[in-house]
């Protein structure tokens, strides 16, 4: 029925070709955002990732800046009072952009990038790059500032076989020296205490320690000594420098501390101090750790240091002035985390101790005496749904009365950052786990309590006429009450100035809006933390941290029960699978509140190969999830009697497929009555020729409104709408640009029939593709022409439908017609997705994430294999755009205007209650949520719709009719009198 | 086994040959077209097996032999014998319980005969036994190859494909297969059509190049045309923003 819709605008199209194109594009695409719409329907959140290095700006007392370097190769600055991003530098992905170290001195932030590839200096105020210097090859080991006469002028960079000294002002290299005996000795640390010398410490594991002193002036070796140290394996992990250049090492085997003066003239020896003699005991199987502090690079480090003896046991020790004896200052047990902080001349130690189940206390202690400073307790609330504290960054400052005040940044295991101010106020929290979203789903919000009650009435069984009437009346009364309350609220708020009215979204007030535009975004992050985010405001409504998630785990999020089945709560299942072993576990939760549900989970002793969600529902309206293990046995979840019975009845019509890309093997299975499986088809793509890179079916919630396309001559071309169709993309093993190819196979997932098999010659991945309705769009790199190209495949049954009532893969003997066209795309892309709407009436757009961070909304109309090369009457009638080999990119198609999404990884689309509107979430480093209207808002009145005009016209017409009627009556009467 | 001699005398072999010219000449897979082709023209045969069991456990038996010939023109033919009475009965029984009729061919390469011709493993496909019975054994079997001539998949469909539950009365209808056999190589996906487009643009350009005199018309009357166009654009812009939904259901 819907096919006639597309004929509507065609009558106006009889214009010359070129004009036609221009006119057409204007007609379709005047879609950009108006200035006053910015931020109205969309929001963006920017993240940086897991913090590796954090420094407070101690340059000036009042500075609010905080600098972070993260595992996502990002260097960023935050406002420490609000947690807002001030600036952010996103470097290359992968090892090339890794930040090895971040050092801060005054206004300069020094950074070594890419395993010692580059040395960079940033201006911390503006975030601009001061200079950048290329370093010699070799992997990075250590770096430190080098001061001379109380001013820091140089930075020393130690690499595997080379040490170099650079000027801080311009990055020029002062000198570079090869380290002697670089093959045998592992150089691991560099130290400068403000003298004329730079010390390099190297170790030959379990043999001896090498100390080389370089002259600051010209890089000449002044001294070179080696010290017997058969117990030492790594300087980096077991040694620190304390006091006046005293190397302090800890040996877990002999449970002893070793000291060695670095600067000593004569050949020194390690001095052993047994921990037992200090009355200290190391927890079993714990590697003791030393923590020291060098507040200023021009001066030697503090003689106080921490020794960690167990997971929650720290001791503050002091090296006595004689340099050989150690005095314990204070024992901290239990204490999770410790950190030194310096302000002016004072150095303090911050210690985090557990307080109770839900909170930790942080206290300050004077570093030189170990005395507790009064009124310095700060409470850190432990989130039960978050991770444990992982690291402490303390910013100490002098108050007006010369006492020490401090702020503290706590990093937890779930990558969250919490900033706490005295006296124990959480200023802000940043959920940095969201920088790495793996998968997401959007779930409808529940109805309000009153609405739900009304709904619930229909769910319950009838218990007599009178109680039913009473119940109806009571629910009507509650509805009336709610409405009155709403009116009162409106009236009350109307008197307040607009800025004060805040629509705070909390988990209690969540309810579905009129057009279902507000949804719950359930996001799964790589760190194993789950988030529930309100799609309208972007505020995090719940979070849940899954501990014991392996770093290489694969996640699959499944919505088993939607919100539609009141009073049953919605239910989501997260399948967590270890990539190496294949063993999987399930986490079942309520997507609205994030609470774990207490359903009995199936035992999964064997690796899981495939999971599939069946349309079969159990008596509680939860869809059944089937898990296939490596022996092709099937586990059902939930596995109630009812479900098993249904499965037995349906078993002969449940088919599934498995793909082993390492063997190029695709095989299909059918379920048997006893929940075992039988292999029924097999397709093998030899791995010598090509390897399977991606497989994609269609989205199960996709609706296709029109079965066919009306052609110019008014006949209908029916679409081949096979819900079981799989698009399999392969890449050739031969990487030679002339012989490389990309293969596109369309395979029926039930019968294993190869519906179409095409080869794109001289092409290479990465291939991005979207499979929807009756089409597949893919993008690849053309190795011959060196450009990105888009190709579109459309499948049609022809002008007659084989079986118009139902589609069955088992009964569709004729192969579809396949049309294909290819275009040049002037940009590489990072991800691609198609818009999705409620009923599928709205025309489709492709949402393309570009490396620039823009998201392009490309009308599918431009990717239509029926675009004619020569314009005819028929094609014009059909609204086909004449073929042009190059696909345009118009800036007004960027749905995120200037809100670029760094490193877009995925785009998620969800239908809303309005047919015209599709909700879009783009995630990567940032998260961006917006709405798109592929066919514009045909079902919504515009914001500036002139209600006054239309109603005045209506009234005027109404009165005009009344008056003229009266006049006519009078006239008739007069005529009758005559 | 009693009825075997009679059926042997009748048409014991029903070869259905269908040749699909896969255009191998243009898709040079890095192998020189000359070598190995002249020697390999004889072709080779591989077993073609089927399985249909009431308990749905695969027990493959010989159905016939596939005669494959690689090279410039890939061709395939099938020689197969009739179904025995026992087989016919089993097939009918399988059809009643909605079992599957499966076929399989070994994985082979059509071009690369020097090296090991047969790789381990089979390619399998299935069709519902009832549809095979109801179509009186008229099946369409398609073999798929990849770019370098390996067999990658096989498919079987029957025409008509539906199971309507009609009883097949005549035993003769279930004796001999009426097989249509094709072999399909991958098609080459199109490249962007730049040459044609440029040609078309050139033609258009030429067309536009000619009416130089028309320009004088604009030159003469531009002072009337420009205000008119401006006026139209202004009103048009308003109009357009008003009629936002005009493209609504264009699909």
From TrEMBL, chain A:
<feature type="domain" description="ER membrane protein complex subunit 1 C-terminal">
    <location>
        <begin position="772"/>
        <end position="977"/>
    </location>
</feature>
<dbReference type="InterPro" id="IPR011047">
    <property type="entry name" value="Quinoprotein_ADH-like_sf"/>
</dbReference>
<keyword id="KW-0732">Signal</keyword>
<keyword id="KW-1015">Disulfide bond</keyword>
<protein>
    <recommendedName>
        <fullName>ER membrane protein complex subunit 1</fullName>
    </recommendedName>
</protein>
<dbReference type="GO" id="GO:0072546">
    <property type="term" value="C:EMC complex"/>
</dbReference>
<keyword id="KW-0812">Transmembrane</keyword>
<keyword id="KW-0256">Endoplasmic reticulum</keyword>
<dbReference type="Pfam" id="PF07774">
    <property type="entry name" value="EMC1_C"/>
</dbReference>
<dbReference type="InterPro" id="IPR011678">
    <property type="entry name" value="EMC1_C"/>
</dbReference>
<dbReference type="InterPro" id="IPR015943">
    <property type="entry name" value="WD40/YVTN_repeat-like_dom_sf"/>
</dbReference>
<dbReference type="InterPro" id="IPR026895">
    <property type="entry name" value="EMC1"/>
</dbReference>
<comment type="subunit">
    <text>Component of the ER membrane protein complex (EMC).</text>
</comment>
<dbReference type="InterPro" id="IPR058545">
    <property type="entry name" value="Beta-prop_EMC1_1st"/>
</dbReference>
<keyword id="KW-1133">Transmembrane helix</keyword>
<feature type="signal peptide">
    <location>
        <begin position="1"/>
        <end position="32"/>
    </location>
</feature>
<comment type="similarity">
    <text>Belongs to the EMC1 family.</text>
</comment>
<dbReference type="Pfam" id="PF25293">
    <property type="entry name" value="Beta-prop_EMC1_N"/>
</dbReference>
<keyword id="KW-0472">Membrane</keyword>
<keyword id="KW-0325">Glycoprotein</keyword>
<dbReference type="GO" id="GO:0034975">
    <property type="term" value="P:protein folding in endoplasmic reticulum"/>
</dbReference>
<feature type="domain" description="EMC1 first beta-propeller">
    <location>
        <begin position="32"/>
        <end position="432"/>
    </location>
</feature>
UniProtKB/TrEMBL annotation, chain B:
<dbReference type="GO" id="GO:0072546">
    <property type="term" value="C:EMC complex"/>
</dbReference>
<protein>
    <recommendedName>
        <fullName>ER membrane protein complex subunit 10</fullName>
    </recommendedName>
</protein>
<comment type="similarity">
    <text>Belongs to the EMC10 family.</text>
</comment>
<keyword id="KW-1133">Transmembrane helix</keyword>
<keyword id="KW-0472">Membrane</keyword>
<keyword id="KW-0732">Signal</keyword>
<comment type="subunit">
    <text>Component of the ER membrane protein complex (EMC).</text>
</comment>
<dbReference type="Pfam" id="PF21203">
    <property type="entry name" value="ECM10"/>
</dbReference>
<keyword id="KW-0256">Endoplasmic reticulum</keyword>
<keyword id="KW-0812">Transmembrane</keyword>
<feature type="signal peptide">
    <location>
        <begin position="1"/>
        <end position="29"/>
    </location>
</feature>
């Amino acid at each position: 029925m819907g096919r006639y819709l597309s004929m509507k605008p065609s009558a106006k199209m009889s214009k010359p070709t070129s004009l036609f194109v221009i006119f057409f594009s204007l007609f379709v695409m005047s879609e950009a955002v108006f200035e006053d719409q910015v931020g109205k329907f969309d929001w963006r959140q920017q993240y940086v990732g897991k913090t590796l290095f954090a420094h407070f700006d101690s340059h000036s007392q009042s500075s609010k800046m905080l600098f972070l370097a993260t595992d996502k190769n990002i260097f960023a600055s935050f406002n420490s009072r609000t947690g807002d991003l001030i600036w952010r530098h996103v470097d290359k992905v992968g090892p090339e952009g890794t930040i090895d170290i971040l050092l801060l001195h005054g206004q300069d932030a020094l950074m070594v990038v890419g395993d010692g590839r580059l040395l960079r200096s940033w201006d911390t105020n503006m975030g601009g790059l001061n200079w950048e210097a290329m370093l010699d090859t070799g992997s990075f080991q250590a770096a430190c500032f080098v001061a001379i006469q109380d001013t820091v002028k140089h930075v020393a960079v130690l690499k595997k076989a080379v040490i170099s000294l650079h000027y801080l002002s311009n990055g020029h290299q002062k000198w570079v020296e090869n380290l002697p005996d670089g093959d045998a000795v592992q150089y691991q640390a560099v130290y400068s205490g403000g003298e004329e010398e730079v010390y390099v410490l190297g170790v030959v594991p379990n043999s001896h320690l090498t100390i080389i002193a370089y002259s600051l002036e010209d890089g000449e070796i002044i001294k070179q000594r080696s010290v017997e140290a058969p117990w030492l394996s790594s300087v980096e992990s077991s040694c620190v420098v304390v006091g006046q250049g005293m190397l302090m090492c800890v040996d877990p085997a002999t449970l002893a501390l070793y000291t060695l003066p670095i600067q000593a003239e004569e050949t020194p020896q390690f001095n052993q101090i047994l921990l037992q003699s200090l009355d200290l005991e190391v927890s079993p199987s714990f590697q003791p750790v030393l923590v020291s502090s060098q507040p200023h690079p021009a001066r030697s480090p503090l003689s106080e240091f921490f020794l960690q003896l167990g997971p929650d046991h720290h001791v503050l020790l002091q090296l006595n002035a004689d340099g050989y004896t150690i005095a314990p200052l204070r024992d901290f047990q239990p204490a999770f985390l410790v950190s030194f902080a310096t302000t002016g001349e004072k150095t303090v130690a911050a210690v985090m101790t557990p307080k109770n189940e839900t909170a930790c206390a942080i206290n300050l202690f004077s570093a030189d005496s170990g005395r507790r400073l009064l009124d310095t307790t700060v409470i850190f609330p432990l989130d039960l749904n978050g991770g444990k504290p992982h690291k402490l960054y303390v910013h100490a400052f002098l108050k007006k009365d010369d006492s020490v005040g401090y702020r503290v940044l706590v990093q937890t295991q779930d990558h969250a950052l919490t900033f706490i101010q005295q006296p124990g106020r959480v200023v802000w929290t940043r959920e940095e786990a969201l920088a790495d979203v793996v998968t997401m789903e959007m779930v409808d919000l529940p109805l309000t309590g009153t609405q739900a009650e009304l709904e619930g009435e229909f769910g319950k069984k009838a218990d007599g006429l009178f109680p039913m009437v009473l119940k109806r009346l009571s629910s009507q009364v509650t509805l009336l009450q709610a409405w009155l309350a709403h009116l009162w609220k409106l009236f009350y708020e109307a008197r307040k100035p607009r800025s004060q009215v805040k629509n705070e979204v909390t988990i209690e007030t969540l309810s579905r809006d009129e057009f279902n535009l507000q949804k719950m975004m359930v996001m799964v992050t790589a760190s194993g933390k789950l988030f529930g985010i309100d799609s309208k405001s972007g505020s995090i409504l719940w979070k849940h941290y899954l501990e014991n998630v392996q770093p290489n785990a694969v996640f699959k999020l499944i919505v088993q029960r939607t919100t539609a089945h009141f009073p049953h709560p919605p239910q989501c299942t997260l399948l967590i699978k270890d990539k190496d072993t294949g063993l999987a576990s399930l986490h079942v939760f309520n997507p609205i509140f994030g609470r774990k549900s207490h359903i009995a989970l199936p035992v999964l002793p064997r690796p899981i190969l495939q999971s599939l969600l069946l349309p079969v529902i159990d008596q509680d309206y939860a869809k059944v999830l089937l898990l296939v293990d490596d022996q092709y046995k099937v586990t059902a979840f939930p596995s109630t009697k009812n479900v098993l019975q249904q499965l037995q009845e349906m078993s002969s019509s449940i088919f599934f497929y498995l793909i082993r890309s390492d063997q190029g093997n695709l095989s299909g299975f059918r379920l048997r009555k006893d929940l075992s499986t039988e292999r029924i088809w097999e397709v093998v793509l030899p791995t010598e020729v090509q390897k399977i890179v991606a497989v994609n079916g269609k989205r199960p919630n996709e609706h296709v409104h029109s079965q066919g396309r009306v052609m110019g001559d008014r006949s209908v071309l029916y679409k081949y709408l096979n819900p079981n169709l799989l698009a399999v993309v392969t890449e050739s093993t031969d990487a030679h640009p002339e012989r490389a190819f990309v293969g596109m196979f369309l395979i029926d997932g039930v019968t294993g029939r190869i519906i179409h098999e095409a080869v794109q010659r001289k092409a290479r991945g990465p291939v991005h593709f979207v499979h929807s309705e009756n089409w597949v769009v893919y993008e690849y790199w053309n190795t011959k022409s060196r450009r990105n190209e888009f190709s579109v495949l459309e499948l049609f049954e022809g002008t007659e439908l084989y079986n118009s009532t139902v589609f069955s893969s088992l009964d569709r003997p004729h192969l579809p017609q396949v049309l294909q066209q290819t275009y040049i795309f002037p940009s590489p892309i990072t991800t691609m997705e198609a818009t999705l709407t409620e009923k599928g009436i709205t025309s489709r757009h492709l949402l393309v994430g570009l490396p620039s961070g823009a998201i392009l909304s490309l009308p599918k109309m431009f990717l239509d294999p029926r675009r004619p090369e020569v314009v005819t009457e028929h094609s014009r009638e059909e609204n086909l755009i004449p073929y042009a080999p190059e696909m345009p990119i118009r800036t007004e198609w960027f749905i995120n205007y200037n809100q670029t999404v760094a490193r877009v990884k995925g785009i998620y689309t969800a239908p809303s209650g309005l047919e015209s509107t599709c909700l879009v979430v783009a995630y990567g480093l940032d998260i961006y949520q917006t709405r798109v209207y592929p066919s514009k808002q045909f079902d919504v009145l515009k914001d500036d719709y002139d209600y006054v005009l239309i109603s005045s016209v209506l009234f005027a017409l109404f009165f005009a009719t009344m008056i003229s009627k009266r006049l006519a009556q009078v006239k008739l009467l007069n005529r009758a009198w005559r | 086994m009693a009825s075997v001699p009679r059926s042997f005398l009748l048409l014991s072999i029903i070869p259905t040959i269908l040749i699909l010219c896969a255009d191998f000449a243009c898709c040079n897979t890095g192998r020189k077209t000359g070598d190995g082709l002249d020697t390999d023209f004889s072709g080779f045969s591989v077993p073609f097996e089927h399985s249909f069991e009431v308990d749905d456990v695969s027990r493959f038996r010989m159905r016939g032999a596939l005669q494959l010939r690689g090279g410039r023109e890939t061709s395939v033919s099938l020689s197969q014998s009739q179904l025995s009475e026992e087989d016919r009965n089993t097939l009918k029984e399988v059809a009643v319980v909605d079992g599957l009729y499966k076929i399989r061919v070994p994985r082979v390469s059509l071009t690369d005969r020097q090296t090991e011709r047969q790789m381990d493993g089979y390619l399998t496909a299935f069709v519902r036994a009832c549809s095979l019975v109801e179509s009186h054994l008229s099946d369409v079997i398609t073999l798929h190859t990849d770019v370098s001539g390996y067999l990658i998949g096989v498919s079987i469909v029957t025409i008509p494909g539906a199971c309507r539950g009609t009883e097949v009365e005549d035993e003769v209808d279930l004796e001999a297969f009426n097989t249509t056999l094709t072999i399909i190589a991958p098609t080459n996906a199109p490249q962007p059509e730049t040459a044609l487009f440029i040609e078309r643009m050139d033609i258009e350009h030429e067309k536009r190049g000619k009416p130089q005199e028309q320009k004088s018309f604009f030159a003469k009357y531009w002072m009337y045309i420009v205000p008119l166009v401006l006026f139209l654009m202004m009103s048009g812009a308003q109009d357009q923003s008003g009629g936002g939904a005009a493209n609504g259901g264009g699909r």
